[in-house]
C-alpha cells in the first residue's frame, strides 16, 4: 500500500485554436524532465518530455533553469468534440488545463 513515494508534478497546459498544446511540468526536487502523455478520448496520441525552455515563466526560479516546457501539435488529430488531457507518464497525474493562453505579464 505504501510503496515508493511519488512526488507531485507542478504543471499546466493550454490548447490553442490550431491544436497546439503548450505547457510546462516539473517536480520541485527533481532534475529529470517530466515524461508526459497526450491523451485524446482515452487514447494516448503522443508522448513528450517537458524539457524545452519555458520563456513565459523565465522570471520564476524553476528547476533546470527553466527548461520545463513542452509543445505538441494535435492539429491533424484534434476533433471538435475531443476530450484532451495531459498526464504525467509515471503517475498518470493530470496537469491543469488552462482556459486562456499563458501571458508573460502575469504569473503562471
Concise account of the structure shown:
With 108 residues, the chain is an all-beta fold.
Rg measurement, Å: 14 Å
Q: How would you describe the shape? A: globular
- Helicity range: under 10%
CATH hierarchy: architecture? Sandwich
Quote the beta fraction: 35-45%
* Category from helices, strands and their pairing: mainly beta
Mean pLDDT: 84
Name some characteristics of this structure.
three-stranded antiparallel sheet; four-stranded mixed sheet; mainly beta; 37% strand; single chain; 7 strands; Immunoglobulin-like; 108 residues
Q: What does this entry look like structurally?
A:
This protein has 108 residues and is mostly beta strands. It has a single domain (10-96), classed as Immunoglobulin-like (Sandwich). The chain is 0% helix and 37% strand. The strands form two sheets. It has a four-stranded mixed beta sheet with strand order 5-2-1-7, with no helix packed on it. The protein has a three-stranded antiparallel beta sheet with strand order 4-3-6, with no helix packed on it. Strand 3 (34-40) and strand 4 (43-50) form a beta hairpin. The N and C termini lie far apart (35 Å).
List the helices and strands and how they pair.
Blueprint: E1 10-15, E2 20-26, E3 34-40, E4 43-50, E5 69-73, E6 84-88, E7 96-97
Parallel strand pairs: 1-7
Antiparallel strand pairs: 1-2, 2-5, 3-4, 3-6
